[in-house]
Structures are given as structure tokens and as C-alpha cells.
Amino acid sequence: MFKQLFAVAMTVLCLTGILVPVGSNTAFAAETVGLETTNVALNAAVTASGQCNANESASNAVDGKTDTKWCDNTSAQKKWLELDLGKEYVINEWVLQNAAINESGNSPFWNTKNFRLQTSNDGETWTDVDVVTNNAQTIVDRFVTPFATRYLRLYIDKAAYDSNTVRLYELEVYGVDAGQVPGVPDTNLAPIDYVDPFINTLGDNGQTNPGPTLPFGLVSLGPDSDGGAFSGYYYENKYLKGFSHLRFSGVGCSGAGGNILMMPETRDFTKNVADYKQKYDKSSEQASAGYYGVTLASGIGVQLTSSDNVGFHKYTFPDSANTGSVLVDLSNSYAGMLDASLKVTGSNEITGMIKSKNVCGNGYYTIYYSIQFDHDFDSYSSWQGDAVGAVAERNGSNSGAWLNFNTAGGKTIQAKVGLSTISVEQAQAERGEYSDWNFDARHEEARAAWSNLLNKVEITDADEQNKRVFYTQMYHSYLSPKNVTSSAGTFKAGRDENTIRQASELGDDFEYYNGWTTWDDFRKYALFSLFEPQRYNNMVKSLVDLYSTRGTYTQWGDGYWPSPTVRNEFNGQVILDAYAKGFQDFDVYKALKGMAVDADNFSTSDGEISGKLEKANSASFPMKLAELIGDQATFDKYKELALSYKKLWNKDQVDEKGTPTGFFTPNGMTVGTGDIQAVDRYAYQGNLWQYRWSAPQDINGLAELMGGKTEMAKQLKHFFEIDEYMAINEEDISAPYLFNYLGYPYLTQYYAREFTTEVVTQKYHNHGAYSYPIKSRVYRDDPEGYLPSMDDDAGGMSSWYVFSALGLFPGNPGEAYFLIGSPIFSEVKLHMGSGKTLTIKANGVSSENRFIQSATLNGHNFDQSWIKYEDLMAGGTLEFQMGNTPNFSWGAKASAAPPTTDYAAEVDNNLSHQPLIAEKSTWKYYDKGQAAGEGWTEAGFDDSGWSSGQAMLGYDSYNKPATKVSYGPNANNKYVTTYFRKTFDAKDMGSILELDASLIRDDGAVIYLNGHEVYRTNMASGSVGYGTFANATVGDELDRNGFIIDPSYLVEGTNVLTAEVHQVNATSSDIAFEFSLEAVRKLTVPAAPTNPVVEDQSNTFGWTPVDGIADATDYEFSTNGGKSWTPANANPQTVGPLNYAPGLVQVRVAASVEDSRAPGLALLSDKAYTSDVKWDVYDLKADIHQDGNMVVDVTGTLKGDYADSAVVVFQLMDGKEHAWVSTAVPVQTGSFDISQIYNVEASKYKVNVYLVNEFNGNIYESPLWLADPIVQQSEPGSLPDPEGPVVDDPLPEQIPLPDPKPEEPEEPEVPEVPQEPGNELTVQFEGRSEMTSEMHPDGKAGLQTEAGNGGTVVAHTFNGAWLAYDVNFGSKGFNNVTVQYDAPTDKVPAGSKLEFRLGSETGELVGTVNLDDKNAGWGSYITTSAKLTKTLTGIQKLYVVMVAGTPNPNNLPYIGNFDWFKFDKIRSDYASLELETYDDWTTELNPGNSQPLGTEPGKGNVGLQVKNTFNGAWLAYKRMDFGSEGADQFSIEYSGNSTNTFNNSAVEVHLGSPTGTLVGTLATPPTAAAWGTYDTVIGSLTQKLTGIQDIYLVLTGSAAEGETGKRYIGNFDRAAFSLKVEEPEQPEQEQLTVQFEDKTEWNTALNTFNKQAMKIENNNGGKTVGNTFTGAWLGFKDVDFGSTKGKNKLSIVYDSPDNRAPADVKAEIRLGSADGTVVGTISLPNTGSAWGQYKTATADLNTTVKGKQDLYIVMTGSTTSSLLYVGNFDSMTFGYEPVRSDYAKLELESYDAWTTALNPANSDPLGTEAGKGGVGKQVKNTFNGAWLAYKRMDFGTAGVNNFSVEYSGNSSNCFANSAIEVRLGSPTGTLVGTIATPPTAGSWGTYKVASGDLTQKLTGIQDVYLVLTGSAATGETGKKYVGNLDNAAFSLKA
Questions:
Q1: How do residues 382-394 score in pLDDT, each as one tens digit?
Q2: Element spanning 527, H or E
Q3: Which CATH number fits the domain that encloses residue 1824?
Q4: Of 160, 177, 194, which one is at a domain's C-terminal end?
Q5: Does residue 1363 sit within a domain?
Q6: Is residue 1460 part of a domain?
Q7: Scanning 146, 918, 931, 1573, which has its CA 20 to 30 A from the CA of 195?
Q8: pLDDT in tens, 1505-1534
Q9: What is d(CA 1069, CA 972) in angstroms, rounded to the nearest whole number?
Q10: Nearest to 518 by CA among 480, 463, 561
Q11: Mean pLDDT throughout 1544-1565?
């Protein structure tokens, strides 16, 4: 029972006459104490509507276990479970525990949806007690009005969302014996007793942990279950691994923590978690704020509590355990371990440290620990990796200890675990703070700490559930950040692991906090500002300090942090809000610069909107802070960025239905209708609807984009009405409160209450749509507590509930107010951190009465939808009158709207930004390829020999630098470092607040000021020399790095700024340097003038000047309370004729940059000004000519101080009451003259002339008359109200409340249908419902039954006889029939058959079974099958008709004897197999997450796919009919995520069983880095499949050595079996291009250096294969090289930069396998100095490849840790160039080229003549040095190693030493053989063959050169030839 029963007060139940009937509203008469209830359903007699199988019967639902279940998947439309309790009980509570959470990723949609609890007096007639609809909860716990019963029924109207299968662990019913009073939970508890730490722990519904911790305590001790939760614990898990000490509550990704896991044991030593984890007694588990307890299956009782820095364990061993052990496992970590150590100290202590990864694996934290026990351990074993033994010290991430205690005499072992971020010694000191072993005292201290905090909110209200949710979520809000300050007052700061600091340096009460996730939880900190101002102040100071220690900007928790952390984007929002609320105890200028760096570096992507919208919002933080401190330059800079959100607005973008609506889209482009609702497509964890409101920094501007505030409010309401609001995540969480800004606070009240306490519809989780919309409260008090996938996000979500329940929600940061929502409690007392108490009363509040009718604050009318922070902290009473209808006017006027940023407002400038080094300055530089020399960073260094030039300085290929520096003489060995110097002057050091620097550097740089290093970027730590390379390549040399320099390094007078810029390598393509520096000074703020003089009559304001500033023009004045200022020109200053309340008129000293002066303090008027409707500041004269046409000449002379608008109004009067014509003419400010001419007879008309400030058609509505009018005939009327103009502040147009959503109709009652058949349906022939009445032709009888075949058969059959059957074929149906019969050849005519028909004996023919029997004589029964013409479903009237074969010459009398017929289902969907249509699948669980196989929406959200796949899982597709043609290949479409999916994933095809004959294997490696990218792989089967087969697809895959985080094989959508089609011969392509990503397979080994597998990326305009390494290979099956010419040339497009890949990369081309025959090798030299420079390499193959081949590309190269890749590979193209292959018989005259030189003996060239025997030709006139070329000779892969030549040589003319050299490539190329060809005879005509071995085997394609040599011996004459050469041959000699 989830809600624990306490001894409680209970109203009297009426028993035997006073029992209140079920459903009655009768009040109880008096109170009494109820008895504790028990589960009276336990082991009750139970029956059910059905069951899935014998192991899942109804009794499982009442056996008290959650590892057994009742399942019913029968065809019964209404499922039910009936209980006979055996006697009558009084019931008041029932609990339903659904089983889906442990079965499928489809939870919660397999949870029972619509159901009711019913009671009966007799077990026959049932009455509803309680009805539940649209349930999605796993555990449903319901209290009901007590009722007495013996019989109960759970009646299920809809078993699940996606099916009608019910899956229940338990039905629990709680009550007491008849005549007794059942108890209910206590009410009006202390706040701490409402906290239930189990809320948000079941499933992925919060990711919190029930273990003990203190508010903001470092220790977060808690249970770790085996289900993979991000905070370590899932409520539904059956095993506990132990109890760990660190975690980050409520975050996603991987979570962080789980360290220092301890587990008490009674077993022998093991270090394997699968062995040491233990089941536990769920009923024993207890948790409260500061405490956790449980009893393990071993009988050990565990109790835990904690302090800030110490975890306390108390283990009670069972009586039977004489030896108890405690495991300490240091390898346990949610995000991954990096290192650990342990040291056994003495006999009761272990110390050491752990180093573990942050959330998502970003960065790390280091924690030191000391574990001390209250008993000595008798012995121990420690381990590191596989090494185990009694070794006192161990190091390594996989290490731990097993400690053995003697528990024979004492059963309790206690442990204290001290943690520290500082050292082991400090961890010991933390533990040493507690000298005793009083566990109960520690528990009480923890409870007191939580009570002190939670008691700050006192709730008076009757709704216990809301109080339970409130205090639990308030508890969750206070779990982070963590106070990481030691008890000694020391700490380590974020990103600064090596410095131990004293907290006192930042203030006497300072404590350092860590653990940030401000993207999620920045609003939460406003809660701390109310109740914990000191802690809040320290959190803010910690964030500001982080700007000093973090180094460069980091969005995530990269690098070192003192405790687990997540992300930092919105840290500035927290700081800004604090400053506006008066928390200003920090360096505001450091904070401002840090915020600016945050905004500048905010990560965005061009194809999305979320990052850009958030970047704009982030820019508003420094903008608003700059406004608050008076930094106009910074305000103006970031104002532009803050307004950049408007660039993304596409006003014409349609919504998902095609309606023009307007959305933020990537760069304002138009997207498809299907893109609007797609989560994660263009926006992080959301869609375009949810990010439509993401401009909180400029609500007014956002409203303008949408057509105004009313139009925006209508659209926002529509957003809620279509259920696009995602209440479970942060991106649109403030949307309900936006109505306050728009003038519709009643809609804020409606929706804030709706999502706080009511059942709402939610369509989305943070990565997509739910399978079905969920209707539920978002915040509940059951173990789920939240909706699926809703992380608590460190209090980001829980604090939303706390705020909304109070009716207060944080306003925009920088404004210091809270928005008013709809409070849910009748009264709340808030004990503020100021010491004051604020009481919030909501009189009459309820779910319906959610609308504020009126409000008062401390008794005064309160009519605005926001309240100042200072008013809350001042205490008092805020009282609301609530009602069930909106008050459309309350808080609705524009004047009542919350404050917003006025982007047009003027900003006081209290700072000056003085350039010390301007951009594009001239610098000295040294580019000589050597160090700059000793002292080069000092001011006194002599740089006269250095060059100089204007910045930017550097070189590149785009000519960006203004001054080009030298990189030296060798572009492949460029100078590593270039040096720069710039001197500048500085003065008035004391007024400089900071130095703001801006740097462009490519690649790395170190900056010095007067010899002090002040900044280092992209460079390693430690000493730097000329040869030191930068860390990494810089992608864009225009990116700026902003940073602050300590001004203390400046000196008065001349200073020097120096810089050294380093290349990333010696072939880097560019270098860049630009630098600017400005001094930020605080301007002097003059005092306020004194002695205000208000002159109402003259409308002037006078003052006494500030000393030294006497001139009136040095002042400025305001008439609107300081919102805007106007330069003064006199003292006293004319201020105008309007009403001004005291204080509205102000005067101050104006700013003067020249005098280093900021605007001064203001002097305020101390009296009111009254309005002057007529202000005589002009002399107005008119000359009216009334002869002929009327001409009016008007002059106006300005005589007062007036500079605003002026309008001359002419009225032409014709004697009637109102003007005939009115004309308004604006005139220039100052004196004027103007004429007006009327084409009328002047004598008949009069004219009036007025001078006013504005005119709307009625002269009496002009607010100000500037002169006495000239009037000949006045209009009737009176002057304006002397009180001044009425401010237009109307109520906005009313928008109606949303229409109530219709209730889902109740499931209609439907008649029960017969039970769904199984996989087979057997019908006995004798079991007919009717049969033919016809007689057998023999006249003896009709059809008969008789004994036969061991039972009963139908006999005496004849032609035309029939039998009818009522058959329920079920919903799935059957399509195959098998008949068992006996049809002997001597009794039954050949060709006889049975026809199966529907409806009648002549009805639709659906199947025919031919009766074929080879035997004579009765008694031999056989079976024959046939396919039906269609699948039969439902209940059918089936007729079996007997047909005799014809002809029947022997008049055989019978058709046969028939025993039974059986239907089954044969599948034939092998050609397109939807994998979710399995007939069976494995029931094993994925060991990576303890979840079974599941299904989810498939590719493109069409259909379903199989998910949560794992090694050894299988799916069966039974009785698949492949027909006679069969199938011989298999393909599958799937998606694989390289982060979670095994690299060697594969699918095996087995026959008959998961271990049956293996007929095929398909590799299915990951398809991309994230889910959603699909690929189809295909391969041949080892045999053709024909006929009916049971197909089993078995999934395989495993992690490589050292690989972690892999748990899946992939997501599998569909498959297909097919028959290879012999493709017709296609015309051979000249070129064959193969894309590398189209590989059929690749090796799954990991890159040695980064432990990652190869992957497919988007590059070079398409896809490429990346993360390649030496030994990597890719295979391409059945590549068709053509059968005619084939291919012998290859080119590869690739990218291989020299800073990432070695210079000796090659690709081997192999056939058949990765170690098959090499047919080519291509060298792939480096392509450039950075990725993105794709080039093409070309090479010949060793041979011409023909036909279809399995092609393999194998990569090689001398990779290292820095050159860890061989390249990125795009495509390869095979081509053909003609080759020769006539090497075996080479006619030498068929040369491709020969020498053009002449025979020196006869000056003739080589020639040809008739060859041997006159056949063919031979080469003649040969001479020394002559050559013949035979190019592109293809020797194939076997090659040749012998050469022979047939020739003739005349000894009279031929050299005796004649020879032929065989060379490769050229006449002087590699010599591979020499054959002597001496003369063959005394004359020509005698031929011989000379041969010899080559020095190497020739293979592949070669250019062969035959070079002829020979020379005359000394004194020899007449010799001129080498010989006549006929033919030659190359051969392979054995």
C-alpha cells in the first residue's frame, strides 16, 4: 500500500443500519479513531475473464507479489477479476499495481486504462464503487467512502491504450472486519511528514532518489537499484546493488554520481554486481526527509541518514549470520569512472578518492572519502581489475574492497563515510566531527534541518494530496546546488582543481556552492531569494567567482568541478535577478563581463531556432545588468543581440494545418507543415509551437510580431487548446504566465491552476510525441509523480509546482518581482528570510474557484498581476477573493501589467570605455622563424629591428590580413611562432575598474601585459617556447575572444602589450592576430542639486546648483519621474503646464564624458503642479481680409519656454452652431507666420483662429491652448478638464475561457464473445451443428458416425453430402486447413475431394482438399493440407461438402472416413515482413537495462519497429510459406545509434528454432551517431528457402574490449526475403562509381586511439565514411565490373589532413574478403592542413577486374595518438584504359612506341621486314640503345617470371655481346632481366630462342620496355646490329 496508514482520526461508519451506502453524500455524525487496515484481498478466491497463459492466472493478482502477474489477452471485450473475500469486510482503500513498467517501453500505455471497482451482495449483481478513466499511472491508489462487502469485482472497460490486454501485478483492497472502523491517513501533519521521497522514483518520471541528504548537502546517500536510473534508483526494480554517496537529482542523459557504493552481505566474496546485488522486501522500504531504511533478501536491515558531508550507515545482520561482510565498490558510476584509489588504514577504516565523469560524460569531479566502521573487520580482500587479495592499497577505476566482520556477538555494524572535495585528511576531519555512533541522533539532526526549512511554509488547507505534492517538491527543489565548502572553511572552485581556497576570502559568511544546470532550473533560485537569502547570496557569489576560475566559456561541465554538474548557459540569469533584488555583494563588473562572454559564445546551429532564441535571451542578461549599473556601451551592444530573435520570425509560416500563423523558423525560412509539431527537428527538446513564445526578454516586441497583445493572447490560448503546451519540460514552462503581460491575468489563473492540480492532456515528451496523448495530473503523489520522460531537472520542475501552488511565479530577471497566478491553498504563511511573515489568503479557493475577484495587500486595494520582491519580503497579508468566473478587469489594464524592458529607454551611463589599443592599430612584429629573444615581453625591450604593420596581421588564402607576415621559405615547414608588440600610454590608474580585451588568434596565443602573462588560449599549460604548437586548429580567424585583464598590471605612462601566436603545425594554412584593449572607468556621480523651487503659476522648477557646476546648461530635467531627460536651458526651468505630482519633476547634473562625469543624483519636486489648460506662451495675431475671398494672415511669436508641438486651427463659421470647415496646420517650433485662403464670399462668413498643442476635430478636447484665441463666432463648448489629460488605460477586449473538453465516452457494453482461438483450431468431424439429410445412394442410411482411428469418425459418406459447423476463427483468423481421413483406393474414386464453403452447401468456396490415398482397405489414416482462398476470421457458418471424383467407372461407393480437420495460419508476407508482426519473441530481458524487447513508432512514425534489442534476442515468424520458387536472399531496414549500439551488430536467420540451422547472417552496424537514420542491408542466404518454414531472426552483438555504454543491436523496422533475379546483361559502363557509405559491411573494430568505430558523416556535399584507422576495411558485395572490358583503373575522393592523418596512407583493393587477393594499391597523400580539403588520388589496378566481385578496401597508415585517422572517404571510381595481354606470344613489331634515334652505323631508324619463314614481321636495323615499348601490359595476378625471344643474328654484322634488357616504366626504368642474344649463324636466317629468368615476378599492368644492347670488341669493325627480332614471350616458370 503506497500511502502508509498512520493511526488516524476517522468518522464513524454506519454499520448494521448506519453504514453509509456506496456513493452516498451523507455526512458522518461524529469522529472516532479508525483501525489500521490490511490487504483483505490477499490470497482471496478469484476468477477472471481469461488469462494469457498458464503462468499468468488470476490468482497472481492477489498473491502479494510483484514478480508475478495476471494477464488476459482473450477476445473478451470486457475483462474482469472477481474476488470472494470469504467474509464481509469494511473497505476504504484499493490499489491497482500495473505490470507494464517492467515489461515494455510501451508503459504507461499498457497500464490499465478504464476500469471500475464494483461490489455485490451475491456475486451476481454488481454496483460501481469507484470509476477510473484515462489512467496512465502504474500504481493507482484510491480511497473511497467505506463500504461493507464480501464480493468485489475489478471490471475493465479498456485494458490498455494500444490493445485490450490487461497486465496486473496486484489488486490490493484495504479494510477491516465487519463492524469495525477502517483508518485513513492522518491529516494536518507537520510539513516534513508530508515529504514522500518515493515520489518521482518509479520509471523515467523524475529521476530522483529516495535516499537521505540535507538541504544543499554534498552527501547524497541512497539506494542504487539495477535498472539504470540516472539518480541510481527505480521504484519498480527488484534488486538493489548497494548504497552510494553522490548523485545529481533529477537530471537526464546519464546522470552523475553513484560513487562509493557500499553493500552489506552474508555471502562469500564476489566483486561482480550480478552476484552481489540483492532482492529486497518492498514492504520494508521506508523513506522520509533525511532517512532511508530497507530489509534485504539476505535478512540484513539497512538504515541510512546523513549530514552535509558525512553519510551514516547502520546494518543489522540476521541472527543466523555469524560473519557479516561489507562491500565497497569504487567502480560504480552513472556516467563513468576515470580513476579511484583505496587504502586500508588500520582495521576499521578505508580511505581514498574517486574521479568520475559528469552528466553526459562532460568533464569530471574528484571526491576524497574516509569510511570508518564501529567494529574492526576480521579480514578483507581488495581488488583492482581481476587482481584480488589482501592488498592494503589499490589504484584504478575498477577497484574496491570486501570487509569481513564477526557478527556472532553483535549484529549491528555502523559506518561513517566522510566526503571532501579537498583531501583524504579533510574527509577524515568531516567524519571526525561526529565522535559517537548515535545513529538516531544523526537522524534527528537531519530531520531537524529539513523541518527548519520546510516549516518556512505553513499551509492551511483540506487537500492532503496537494500538500503532499507541495512539500515533496519543495524538498526536491532544495537538493541542489551543493555546498562543497569543508567544515574547515576551505573549498575548490569549478575548473580550478589545484587551488585550495579559504571561503573567508569572499566574505565572513561565505560558502562555496557547485552543481549547476541553469538551463533547467534558473527560476528555482528565486525561491531561495525568499526563504534562504544568505545561502542564495553565496550561490550567486559562487557563480560570479566561477567567471574567474572557469577559464574559457564552457556550456557543459567540461574539465574539473568539485561535485557533479551539468550546464551553465543561464548562470547570468541567476546573477542578474539577484542584483536586481539587492544582492550586490560581488564584483558586478566581473559578472557583467562573464555574462557578456556567455552571450557571445552561446552555442547555436544554423539549422535550428532554439539556440538562437536562447542566445538572444542570454544577451539580455548583460544588457539589463549594464542598464542597472549604467554601462551604456554594453547595453547598446547586447540590446542588438537581445532583439536578434526577430530575424527568425516568419510571419507567413503556416501551422500544421496550413493556416497562416507565424512561427520562429531557421533563419526565418519557410518549413513544411509536418515540421511544425516535430520535436527536436528545429528546436532542442521541443517543436516550433513550444518555442513560439521564447522571447521572454521582450514580451512587447513578441506581441508586436503576432499582431498585438490581444492577438498574441488569442494565439497563446489556441496553443493551450490544441494541447501543444509541454508541461513536462522547461522550454515553454512559463507560457501560462505570459497572459499577465498581455492584459489577461484571468487566463493565467485558468491555465496555472489547470497544470498545477487538474487532469490535463499532454501529447509530448521531450524527444517526441507520446504513443498516445496522456490525460493526467502533471504533478501527483504516487511513485511516478510526474509524466513519462519528465525529469525533475534539479528542481527545475518541482519548483514550478511550488511557485504555482503559492500563486507566485518568478518574473523576468532584472525586474525583481513575482507574477500573480492562482493560489491553490486557502491560506499559506511564508516565513521570509527577512524575518517577516507574509500571509497569502485565497478565500473560497477551489478547483472551480480559481479566478481572482479582488485582492488587497495589507488592507489596501491590490489590482495588478505582479508583486514586488521587496513587498513580499516586507511581510504582511496578501488576500484574494476567489470565484468560479473570471473578473475580466482585475489586473487587466496596461498600467497593471508587470514591468517589461523598454528597449527605447535612455540608459544612464556611469562608465566610460576608453580605448587604449584600438582595432587596426599598428604593431611591431617578429617573423624570423626563431624565438624573439630574452625579455621581449618587457617594456624596455629593443624592438627597433622588428617589422611593423597594421592589424589584422597574418597570412591566409583569402587576403583577410591587412599586413602579411612571413611564414618562411618552405610552405611545408612554416614558422611555428610569430611575435607582436604594442606600446600605449595609460593614466589615472586608480579610476580604472577593469581592462576589456578582445583577441583574434589563429591558432593559439599567449598575451602579456608589461611582462605578466594575462591570457592563454588554445595552448597547453606549462612553459611555451618558439617550437610549441597550438592545441587545435581554429576554424574561423574572425572569431573573437573576449577577456578581462587585471588593471593592477598597468603602470602610469608607457605600457607594452605583447603576444605570441602559435601555429597548430608546420603546414597550417593561415595565421591571424588582432587585438584591442579598452579601459573601463567609473565616472564620478555628482550630488543632487538642493532647494527645490516649484512655481506652479509660471510652470517652472528652480534649484540651487551643485558646488562647481553652476551653469544651467550643465543640468537636465525630467517631468515623468526620471524615465526620460531633457537638457535644461535656464534656472528656473520651464516644465510645462500639465499636472505633475510631487517627485515627477526632477533635475540633475547632466553627464559629461569630457569631465569623467556620470549623470548626477536627482533633486525631486516637493510640491504638485496643476494643469493650465491655457498656457500663454505665444502672442497670436491675425489679419482677416473680408473683401472678396477671405484671407487670414496669422503670426505667432514665442514668448515662453516651449519646445513641443504647435498646431494652428482655422474654423470657418457660416452662422450655424458648428464650424463649416475646420483646418489644422502644424507649425514649426518657435515663431511663425502662416496664411489661409478660402474661396468664399468673405462677408458671409466668420473665422476663428486657435493655437493648440494637438487637435482631434474638437477644439475643446485639445489638452493645451498655447495663446489667447482670435474668435469671431465661437462654437458651443467648454475648455478641457483643468486637471489635465485623461490617460487612456482601457480594458482589453475580452477573450472567452476555453470550452470544456468533452469527456471521453464510456466504453459501451458489448456482449461477450467466445474466447479467441489459439494458433490452431481443430474441429472434430462428428462435432457438426447440422448435416445433410440426404440418404446414401446405397439406400441404407445417410451420413453416420462410427468408431475409428482411436475415436469417432464420420463414415458412410457419399457425393454431395455435407456437414455444417459454427466456427469462431477469431480476430486473427486462419488461412490453411488440414484434414485427417481414410480414403482407400478400393473404396473411394480417384479425384475425390472436400470443399469448404461459407454460409451454405453452395456458398462461397474458400478451400478444397484433394483426398489422395495410396492404400487399399480401411484403416490407414493420413493428413492432407490445402491453403484457403482467403483468411477466415470471426464466427462463420462453415460447410464441408463431399465431392466424388469423376469418372468413377467402378462405382466406388464412398468419399472416405473423416476424423478431424484443423485450421492454422500460414504466413506468406516474407516479401515485405513487418517485424512487429512476430509470432513469438524472446522473453529474456536486455541485460543493459533489464527491459524486454519492445515496439515503438517506426521510420517516419509510420507503423512500428522492434526496439530494445540485445545480444541473443530473437523473433519468430512461424509457418512462413516461401512457395516452390523460394527465396535466396534476405534484407533488413534498421537504424543504429553508434553511442548505444554494438559495432558488430548482426542478424542471423535460423530455421526451426533460435538455435536451428543457420542460413544467413547480415551485419547491421550503427547507421549514424543518433537514432533516426535508417539503412537497408541485403545478403545472400546459404540455401534457397522453399515451402513452409519457421523463421527465427536471432540478434547478435557485443561490446569491444574497453567499450562501455553499448546495449542495443539496433531498431528494426522491416525485412524482406526475395529470390535473386538474374539481371539481364547491361551495357557495360565506362566508369563505375561506388560511394563509401554504401558499404555492405565494414569491420567493427575500434580506432585504437579514440575507442570509436567507423561512422558515416555529412561532408563534401554528401555522406562520407569517417573515423577510419589503419586496418579498417569496408566490403561491397556483388560489385559489377562488367564482363566485356572490366575495370583496371581507380580513383578515390578523400580528405586526409596532415594534422590528423599520417603521410603514408594507402588503400589496398582486395577481392573476396578483407584479406583476399590484392588487385591494387593506391597511395593517398595528405590533402591539406585541416579537414574539408577533398582531393582525388588515381592509380592503376594490378589487373583488369571483370564480372561481379566482392570488393574490399583496406586502409593502412602509420597512425599515432595525434595522427589517429587515415582520412575521410567519399567515393571511388573504377574506369578502364585499354591494356595488352599478349605477353605470352608477343609479336615484337606490335610495339606501342620505339626509339626515334638512328642507327649510327647507317643513319637509319629501326624498321620492320618479313619475319621468320616470310610469316609476319620482325624488327630490323637494331642497334645499341634502341628500345621498343609495350605499354599497359596486363600480367594478371599470377604474373610472369621468365622472358624469351626468338631472333636471328649474323655473326658478320651483329655484336657478339648482343643482349635485350627488360625494363619497367621507361627505357631507363627498373631493370628486371637481361637476355643474351649472340649471333645465331654466319648469315641471316637462322633463328634461335633465347630465354632467362626475370629478377622479379611481374604482375598487374606494366609498361614494358625492351632495350637493345651490344658493342664491338676492341679493334672489331663492321658490326652494326643487335639482331633481327621476331617474337618474344613472358611466362611463369614453376
A1: 999 999 999 999 9
A2: helix 525-531
A3: 2.60.120.260
A4: 177
A5: yes
A6: yes
A7: 146
A8: 999 999 999 999 988 889 888 999 999 999
A9: 10
A10: 480
A11: 93
Q: Are residues 806 and 777 in the same domain?
A: yes
pLDDT at 1623: 57
Structural domain containing residue 423:
202-455
Please name the amino acid found at residue 418.
G
Cell 489679419 appears where?
1183
Decide which of 1082, 1108, 1135 is a domain's last residue: 1082
The answer to whether position 1526 is within a domain reads yes
**Same-domain check for residues 1759 and 1861:** no
Domain count, the chain: 9
Does 6 have pLDDT greater than 50? no
pLDDT tens sequence across 1110-1120: 999 999 999 98
Q: What is the spatial distance between Cα 1141 and Cα 1443, in angstroms, rounded to a whole number?
A: 111
φ and ψ at residue 716, rounded to 5 degrees: -65, -40
CA atoms within 13 A on the CB side of 283: 7
**What is the DSSP-derived secondary structure letter of residue 448?**
H
pLDDT of 1451: 86
Q: What is the DSSP letter of 730?
A: S
User: Residue 934 burial by CB count (10 A; 0-12/13-18/19+): exposed, middle or buried?
Assistant: exposed
Q: Are residues 21 and 105 in the same domain?
A: yes
Beta-bridge mates of residue 371: 350, 417
Same-domain check for residues 811 and 848:
yes
- CATH for 383: 2.70.98.10
Number of helices (H) and strands (E) in the chain: give both, helices first.
17, 114
Same domain, 434 and 286: yes
Any domain includes 1248 = yes
Tally of CB atoms within 10 A around 323: 15
Q: What amino acid is encoded at 680 in this protein?
A: D
DSSP 649: E
Does the CA dihedral 813-817-819-823 come out positive or negative? Answer: positive
Burial letters 521-552, b for 16+ CB under 10 A, else e:
bbbbbbbbbbbbbebbbbbbbbbbbbbeebee
Q: How far apart are CA 1068 and CA 1562, in angstroms?
A: 43
Interior/surface letters 412-430, b for 16+ CB within 10 angstroms, e for the rest: bbbbbbbbbbbbbebbbbb
Phi, psi torsion values for 1727, nearest 5 degrees: -95, -20
CA distance linking residue 1892 with residue 1902, whole number of Å: 19
Asked whether residue 943 carries a pLDDT value surpassing 60, the answer given is yes
**Which amino acid is located at 610 in the chain?**
S
1774 DSSP β-pair partners: 1632, 1690
DSSP string, 1470-1514: GGSEEGGG-SEE----BTTTTB--EEEE-GGG-SEEEES--TT-E
Ordered strands of the 1435-1443 beta sheet: 1330-1331, 1362-1368, 1435-1443, 1393-1398, 1404-1410
CB atoms within 10 A of CB 300: 25
**Same structural domain for residues 1222 and 1358?**
no
One domain, residues 628 and 592: yes
